[in-house]
Amino acid sequence: MARDGAGAAVLNLLFLIDGARIEVGEAQVLRLASALRSRGHGVVIGASGRSAVDEIASRGHTAVRVPGWPNLPGAVAAIARACREHSIDLIDAHSPQLLLPAAIARGLRRTRSALVATLDRVPSRKGTGFERFVLERLPDQVLFTSLADRDQLAELWGRAIGQVVHYGIELPRPGATEPIDLEAKLGVPRDARVIGVVGTLAPEKAVGDAIAALVRLPEDVCLCIVGDGPEENALRAEVHRRSLERRVFFAGPSAEPDRFLVSFCALVLPSRHERLPAGLLRAGALSIPVVAADVGGVREVVVPRETGVLYPTGDVDGLVRAIRGMLEDPSRAAALGCAARQRIASVFGLERWAAETEALFEHVARRD
After folding, report:
1. 349, 168 in Cβ contact below 8 A?
2. CA distance 162 to 229
3. Which residues, other chains included, contact 9 with Cβ-Cβ below 8 Å and sequence gap of 6+?
4. What is the pLDDT of residue 121?
5. Is the pLDDT assigned to residue 368 strictly greater than 70?
6. Around 142, how many Cα atoms within 13 Å sit in the side-chain half-sphere?
7. Among candidates 5, 1, 16, which has minimal Cα distance to 49?
8. Closest C-alpha among 246, 247, 244, 256 to residue 198
9. What's the whole-model pTM score?
């Protein structure tokens, strides 16, 4: 661990990410890595899949191949080699399966790097034996990206561990995101008031609640569903059963979700389960008002009646009332959106995330 002229620590960091390709969670790690590089730190990123390694390198990072589970000896050797070649001060492992070989490499004295575990998901009861042993005994610090995750694990294990550092996002310039032409793309009536759902169409997302609510909303209100997933066919069947084909539009997955968001009067999040909802962060960053089920980490993003409207999860009556209130008072909806952007900037900004992570990494590396 070196020091710059001002006395601040300059760290060489090794991030270990799971998965064969770069998806939402991995992309967040790359954003953090870029922010820390811009602050003067050295960054290496290890991944198991060749396509992931190639994409990491294409984004300008130093990338290394770390064999995945169950090639434990290969993973230990790759991590030790990366630590030696790049003088790594701290390893940030983003799964218990990646934490174990990093800890073994340190136990074998093939690296002296400090060790942090960042939990991108909370261990289930099924996996709690191995994961609890690894997480409670091996890292110097455990990080969570939401209070909801930490609280859920504390309830599961009967004790709290680790610290919370909310991940951050970049805020686009106001007005810089061009709306999608929903009429040209999907056939949405030009004069419709459009509410939207963005995300994976999975059972826990309860998109069917938004369809059920639409029946009780004015005829000029339409629902745009952006995303795909295992529930899509069932949702399409429900739309047909309720004769809502002219008011519900399936856009499929999109590489431009922000352009859809700025096309909506409001974003609806009717989930039964959520961690820290990325869709709410994006909507807030774009000043889009939100109606969300009060579940999981939603309250970490939305301050009720100040930056959005919450309702009890599963309560379709409450969802209808919340949407009606938003649509009937556009000035209030706009004020909620503006307040949401201010909160995202202060609590979930990318620079804030980088600064908090930097301070924690320095503390752990110095302590180690």
Report:
1. yes
2. 33
3. 1, 2, 3, 362, 365, 366
4. 82
5. no
6. 25
7. 16
8. 256
9. 0.90
Say whether both 120 and 248 belong to one domain.
no
For residue 28, give the amino acid letter: Q
Amino acid at 149: D
Same domain membership, residue 142 and residue 113: yes
For residues 321 and 208, state if they share a domain.
yes
Distance between CA 334 and CA 340 in Å, rounded?
Answer: 10
Beta strand residue intervals within the chain, DSSP E = 2-3, 9-10, 12-16, 42-47, 62-65, 90-93, 114-119, 141-144, 163-164, 193-198, 221-226, 248-252, 266-269, 290-293, 309-311
pLDDT at 64: 97
Give the model's confidence band at 167: pLDDT under 50 very low, under 70 low, under 90 confident, else very high.
very high
CB 258 within 8 A of CB 282: yes
Same domain, 104 and 192: no
E strands, 85-201, are: 90-93, 114-119, 141-144, 163-164, 193-198
Alpha carbon separation from 98 to 112, 263, 314 (Å, rounded): 16, 40, 37
Q: Specify whether the CB–CB gap between 284 and 340 falls below 8 A.
A: yes
Does a structural domain hold residue 292?
Answer: yes
Coil, strand, or helix at residue 139? Answer: coil
Distance CA 158, CA 265 (A): 42
Interacting residues of 190 by C-beta distance below 8 A, sequence separation 6+: 183
Nearest to 106 by CA among 85, 88, 133: 88
Sign of CA dihedral 64, 67, 69, 74: negative
